[in-house]
Automatic annotation (TrEMBL):
A Pfam cross-reference name: OCD_Mu_crystall
Source domain of life: Bacteria
Protein's organism: Streptosporangium longisporum
Entry protein name: Ornithine cyclodeaminase family protein
Length: 317
């Protein structure tokens, strides 16, 4: 009966699964044989004031769907731009087993996926990491928290620089003892932060490249998660020509990832060079650190499902 279906709020979800555990869930799913290529495509349904995103998936004993609304005008009225829920079902009976805060789930799983994709590469060295983050919202902060949690005992974060349009409005996110600064994304401090960074996180709503990739050193890792449509990008085509380009799934990237689609159209990237993250997770040695690494994520339904399933299992489901 639906009256017995538990509601997992954002606070409850964060108590059930921390960043390190979420990374492990994603990693274990891929190592256990989950094939992202089998994921149903995301469905976008236009509405009068925005659109709906429908993201269904099935794996093992559970199936589920995330239903998210995107209302671009909401922030001007003090309301969230993105809202939604995750519905988790028993795969055999299709009975509902949990209702989960969809935005909290996205905030947890997105950096977990990013870090799972690059963690084997980051753990090859032990020198302190300098991190530059474009965007100081939940995703930008979540990526830093996830890096901190998963690299604990392996590599420390030497500094974090958040790069934003207006530093006066951003505040200074706290990450324990890690030195944190906030700077304008278009200024000299941003240029210096990117050129020094070992990890650059792009978590914005930008539709054009955020920085000149020529600034990056040869062992830099770039994580781009802000866009999931062909007409938007956060990195320039030159980076895709220079870097190992890792994606959630090749077919999905060719359909949805503007950073990839536009780079191919410009002649900077050959689709045959795209590396599915599953290969990095299962065979880290297959990628040499002889050039920068770009992980471009659009977000996929299986990622929500495996994290939601793990949270429900910790609830005792």
């Amino acid at each position: 009966m639906t009256e017995h279906v538990p509601l997992i709020t954002g606070d409850h979800l964060r108590r059930l699964l921390g960043p390190r555990q979420a990374v492990r869930v994603v990693t274990d799913a891929l190592r256990g044989g989950l094939d992202p290529a089998a994921d149903p495509a995301r469905t976008v349904v236009p509405t009068a004031h925005g659109h709906l995103l429908l993201m269904p998936a099935e794996s093992g004993a559970r199936t589920g769907v995330k239903v998210v609304t995107v209302a671009p005008d909401n922030p001007a009225h003090g309301r969230p731009r993105i809202q939604g829920f995750y519905l988790l079902f028993d795969a055999r009976t299709l009975s509902p087993v949990a209702l989960i805060d969809g935005i909290a789930l996205t905030t947890l799983r997105t950096p977990a996926v990013s870090v799972a994709a690059v963690l084997p590469l980051l753990r090859r060295a032990r020198d302190p990491l300098r991190v530059a983050v474009f965007g100081a919202g939940p995703q930008g902060r979540g990526h830093v928290d996830t890096l901190l949690d998963t690299l604990s005992g392996h590599r420390r974060l030497a500094e974090v620089t958040y790069l934003v349009r207006d530093p006066r409005r951003a505040g200074v996110p706290g990450h324990g003892a890690v030195p944190v600064t906030v700077a304008a994304s278009g200024g000299e401090r941003a240029t210096r932060a990117v050129s020094r960074a070992d990890v650059v996180v792009c978590a914005t709503t930008a539709r054009e490249p955020l920085f000149d990739s020529a600034l990056l050193h040869d062992r830099a890792v770039v994580i781009a998660v802000g866009s999931h449509e062909p007409g938007a990008r956060e990195v320039d085509g030159a980076l895709t020509g220079r870097a190992h380009v890792v994606v959630d799934d090749v077919a999905t990237a060719l359909r949805e990832a503007g950073d990839v689609v536009q780079a191919i159209g410009e002649g900077n990237l050959d689709a045959a060079r795209l590396i599915p993250m599953r290969r990095i997770v299962t065979d880290p040695a297959s990628v040499d650190l002889d050039r920068p690494v770009l992980f471009k994520s659009t977000g996929m339904s299986w990622q929500d499902l495996v994290v939601a399933t793990a949270a429900h299992e910790r609830l005792g489901g």
